[in-house]
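Customer escalation, tier 2.

The customer says the design service returned an amino acid string that "doesn't look like it belongs to this structure." They asked us to rerun it and document both sides in this ticket. The original C-alpha cells are below, unchanged.
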C-alpha cells in the first residue's frame, strides 16, 4: 500500500522482444495463449485448449515453444500429479518496429504481429457491438473509441505516446479488481499517418 493507505498493484513485468522471441510469437495460437494467460492467469494446457477451442496436444506443443524463449513459464506450485500449469512470464510485451530492421525474418514476424493486433481489435469491437445493448447506460457511455487528427513531428508524437502510456500505467497500477462494478477492459493505443487512398 501507499503512504495514504491506498492499494497499488505492482509494476507490470515487461519484456522487450528479441529476434528469437518475435519469430516464435508470430503464430495465431501462440499469441492467443500468451493473451489468455495474461488475462485469466495460470492454467493447464487442457484448460487453455478448452478456452481457445483447440486440442490439448497442439496447446502443449505451442506452450513449450513459448517457454523455450521465456514468454511463458511453468507454475509448479500450482500443479498436482501429472498436471503442468503455465503462467505468462510478463504482463507487457514491448518493442519498436526498427528493432528488427537488420533481420528480415524478425521484421516479417513483427509485421504479422502488428496485423494480428489490428485483427484482434476489429474482432473485439464486433463482439462488443453484438452485445452492447445488454450493458448498462454507464458502461455503454464509458466504452468505445474516438480519434483526433493532428499535424505533428515524430519526436513530439513519441513524447505524446509516452505520456499517454504513463497515464494508462498509473490507472493500471491503481486498479482494484474488487471495486464494485469493475470489469476487465482492453485499451488500445495507436497512431497512424493519414495516408490518402491511392497515394
Amino acid at each position: 500500500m501507499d503512504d495514504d493507505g491506498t492499494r497499488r498493484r505492482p509494476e507490470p513485468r515487461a519484456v522487450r522482444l528479441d529476434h528469437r522471441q518475435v519469430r516464435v510469437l508470430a503464430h495465431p495460437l501462440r499469441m492467443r495463449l500468451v493473451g489468455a494467460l495474461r488475462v485469466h492467469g495460470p492454467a493447464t494446457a487442457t484448460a487453455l485448449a478448452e478456452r481457445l477451442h483447440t486440442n490439448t496436444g497442439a496447446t502443449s506443443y505451442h506452450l513449450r515453444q513459448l517457454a523455450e524463449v521465456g514468454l511463458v513459464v511453468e507454475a509448479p506450485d500450482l500443479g498436482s500429479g501429472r498436471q503442468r500449469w503455465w503462467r505468462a512470464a510478463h504482463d507487457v510485451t514491448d518493442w519498436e518496429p526498427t528493432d528488427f530492421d537488420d533481420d528480415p525474418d524478425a521484421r516479417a514476424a513483427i509485421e504479422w504481429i502488428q496485423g494480428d493486433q489490428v485483427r484482434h481489435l476489429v474482432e473485439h469491437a464486433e463482439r462488443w457491438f453484438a452485445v452492447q445493448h445488454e450493458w448498462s447506460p454507464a458502461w455503454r457511455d464509458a466504452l468505445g473509441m474516438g480519434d483526433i487528427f493532428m499535424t505533428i513531428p515524430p519526436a513530439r508524437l513519441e513524447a505524446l505516446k509516452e505520456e499517454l502510456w504513463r497515464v494508462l500505467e498509473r490507472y493500471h497500477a491503481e486498479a482494484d479488481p474488487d471495486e464494485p462494478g469493475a470489469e476487465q477492459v482492453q485499451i488500445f493505443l495507436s497512431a497512424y499517418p493519414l495516408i490518402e487512398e491511392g497515394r
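Tier 2 assessment: The sequence is consistent with the input. The radius of gyration is 19 Å. The chain is about 50% helix and 10% strand. Sent an explanation to the customer and offered a walkthrough call.
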